[in-house]
Amino acid sequence: MLREILPNVLPTIAVLLTLEMGIAVIVEAILSFVNLSISTDDPTWGGMIAEGRTSIHQAWWVLVFPLVTLFLTVLSFSQLGEGLKDRFDPVLR
Asked: Which of 3, 32, 35, 65 allows an S-S link to 44, with CB 3.0 to 4.6 Å?
């Protein structure tokens, strides 16, 4: 089983895990944006975006930097998954 099944399933599991991590980051940001996540004392990307939304006309960077960081984090998880799939995929070897 380890020689036949695991090499064929490992790339799929790696890609699925990294995509799920990106989804988990987005879900946490959404929940903290609507104030349903962890306590308000802890900084979260969703909380920062919610605060930046109120002051976008005075300080646009308060909204833009957490959004860009959130986007880059999710993109990084996606690219990591694709790289792991390419590295471990037995069909491409």
From this structure: 32
Number of domains in the chain: 1
Q: Of 7, 17, 2, nearest to 82 (Cα)?
A: 17
Each residue's pLDDT tens digit, 11-62: 788 889 988 999 999 999 999 899 887 776 788 888 889 889 888 899 888 8
Residue 93 lies in a domain: no
Q: Is 38 helix (H, G, I), strand (E, B) or coil?
A: coil
Q: pTM of the entire structure?
A: 0.80
Joined together, the tokens standing for residue 23 give 């989804």
Residue 58, φ and ψ in degrees, nearest 5 = -95, -40
